[in-house]
Amino acid sequence: MLGIAAQLLRGFAMGCADVVPGVSGATVALSLGIYEPLVAAIRRFVGLGVAVIRLDVQRVRRELRRAPWRFILPLAVGIAAAFLSLAHVIEAALERYPVELAALFLGLVAGSIGVAWSRLRDRGAANLGIVLVVGIVAAVGLGARSGMLSDPPWWFVSLSGAVAICAMILPGISGSFVLLMLGMYDFMLRALNDRDVPVIALFGAGVALGLATFIPVLEWTLKRWHDRVLAAMIGLMLGSLRVLWPWPGGAESADLGPPAWSEVPGAAALVLAGSLLVLVLARWSAAAQLPAAPRSRAASGR
Question: How far apart are CA 205 and CA 194, in angstroms?
Answer without folding.
Answer: 19
